[in-house]
What we know:
Shape: globular
Radius of gyration: 18 Å
Largest sheet: none
Low-confidence stretches: none
Amino acid sequence: MTKLITPRTATLIGLTAILTWSLLAVMTVATGTIPAFQLAAMTFAIGALVGSLSWVGRPEAIRALAQSPLAWIVGVGGLFGYHALYFLALRFAPPAEAGLLNYLWPLLIVLFSSLLPGERLAPHHIIGTVLGLAGTVLLFAGNTGSFTPGQIPGLAAAFVAAFVWAAYSVMSRKLKAVPTDAVAGFCLATALLAALVHGMVETTVWPETVGQWLAIIALGVGPVGAAFFVWDIGMKRGDIRVLGAASYATPLLSTTFLILAGFAQPTATIAIAAILIAGGGLIAAKDMVWRK
């Protein structure tokens, strides 16, 4: 099906994932105190359902689940690993700071891509990396008084999550032959793994309000559902340079949504850190934006 989509259309489809992911932090915080793996199990189950609904009228689409072990490892490892870490980060660390650390992934995608065969690490990649790290250091330096020992694991989880998602995205580009319909299977496997871990290490906590239920459904339909399918189409069929460059707007949008929702306070430190991280990513992606 995606073979019929033009690169321009695929790029536009992929861009919708970036806007959707900007709402991931605020929606996750709005779900309340639901344990991380329980939340992952619930939202990924909804995401798998969203994907499988596209199979209506296309019974042959289920054949997409017959993929190589490598495809399943990359798909499930990326989705489960990233979101388990990200949900944990938002449970144990301030959401704005955790979100900014997590959104180092666009910069990491540029760096990882530059190390692929035929690519090289140019000076602007290094400059962009230094600016991104400067934003991260400023984020910590400007909040040393507010961080507590209990928040450190959450911040570390957010940082590692960025590496996991960058690796998943780059590997998805290499596994271009895997159809997007397979993402529904990856989501279902992720939901089952999350449910298993939840049963072993967490105590079930159900949503207490209608708003929390709606936040969970919205997460499953959008940031933890449809977004994966449109991102897969964009990465495999679209212009990865445009998608990579556009991703650097995500931390600014994410932090803005957190502030507007009242989950974070607007400060000069957060603003400068966001600009440094996003600016560093744009510089690192110079060759993605401006072609010779």
